[in-house]
Amino acid sequence: MKILLVLPAAEHLRVTRKSRRVTKRNMLRFSLLSLTTVAALTPSGHQVEIVDENVEAVDFDADIDLVGITFMTALANRAYEIAAEFQARGRIVVGGGYHPTLCPEDAAEHLDAVVVGDAEGTWPRLLADVEAGQLRKIYRSEQLCDLADTPVPRRDLTDRTAKHYVTTNAVQTGRGCPNDCRYCSIAAFHHSTHRNRPLARVMEELRQVPRDFMFVDDNIIGDRDYARRLFRAMAPMRKRWVSQCSIDIADDPETLDLARRAGCRGLFIGIETVSQRNLEAMNKSFNDSGRYRERIAAIRRKGIGIVAGMIVGLDDDDAGVFQRTLRFLQRTCIDSLQLNIMTPLPGTPLYDDMERQGRIIDRDWSHYDFRRCVFRPARMTPGQLQDGADWLYSQFYRLDRIVWRFARGLFRIGLLPAVLALKLNLTYRRDLIAQGRRGRNPAREGIPLPVGLERPAEG
Q1: Can you identify the CATH homologous superfamily of domain 148-435?
Q2: Three-state secondary structure along 204-239?
Q3: pLDDT digits (tens, 9 = 90+) for 51-75
Q4: The architecture CATH gives domain 2-147
Q5: What's the pTM value of the predicted model, to 2 decimals?
Q6: Does residue 346 contact residue 363 with C-beta atoms inside 8 Å?
Q7: Residue 230 contacts residue 172 (beta carbons within 8 Å)
């Protein structure tokens, strides 16, 4: 069969046959790992191509037999549009990924078949059923797959578009996270488990990638003992990489030091909120907001930049949260920010809570992109949350603050992490300008910081 694997894109980022301009946001494009892994799982004899709508247009008239689409909730509507176009031309369309796994009934209304959970085990079976004319509606693994069965991804399929990504060399040592944060689709997808690939397989793959690459693990220290063995084995390779993990890596000096020696130069860390009440309500009290300052400083002292994931709109947040969060980010010397409006993703406990409480006010999946308010906040209006989030983002990425962060980073975390942070800062700023987002601060000035964050951090 001729198989086309598709990654949909939001409308303002989408490349089409009429508009072929690729937006300048390479720093935010770093992996097609799900599709390249599915391609590697495809039995020999089939022809596979990959299209990412962020960088090239989908050819709906292509000579293909089967289309596979992977998507999260915010891209579900676009995935269904793509499916309809191909189905109108007589193609079979199947889907997988987070939204089809967590909302299989919704996806099944628009697709010929749905893969629920990991593709290992189910994808080859689906292809065999297509060839036999016995395609079923739902393909679901009976248990979480053994990652020893996961092949090296087909990176060769991204060669022609690689220039549009910060890197296509994405490596995964494990999937999932042992934490059970109530808002997290990763926890829901993987049932709050963490699984590792055999270390020997990972090391073999690492020998094939360039010096600079990315680990796309959900939590690189999800298994602390495995992480230490990995970092020790990597140290002689002199690689340089970024990844994501929980903030408690700062509590383990040995693991933190080994990560730096193994080449870690940047980490995305879900800090989420400065409110301990919010953390407790979301099952993330281990973050311990009272210790943010010392933990962030410990990581940065190792020459590791921090991209902070922050959420606004949680139930303990009032209209002053935006000013408090901005001060926190400045005083703890955060290098880059990914700001999310709290979004109840379907399939998560948070969504179920909101549904029972009648607080969901928008069911347009395309609005579930973490940049729009789709629910009724507890202590402010939806408009205040939207305005405040836009204001906080635009204030953090003011040009003078970007320049200052870069200068500070050169001295505190080193040249490479500082340059990476600068490029990321400028990319987010360009996005904000293109979208015309400025917002406003809905609260009065002079809101105090939580206890323990009154003084600038060192590190």
Answers
A1: tm_1862 like domain (3.80.30.20)
A2: HHHCCCCCEEEECCCCCCCCHHHHHHHHHHHHHHCC
A3: 999 999 999 999 999 999 999 999 9
A4: 3-Layer(aba) Sandwich (3.40)
A5: 0.93
A6: no
A7: no
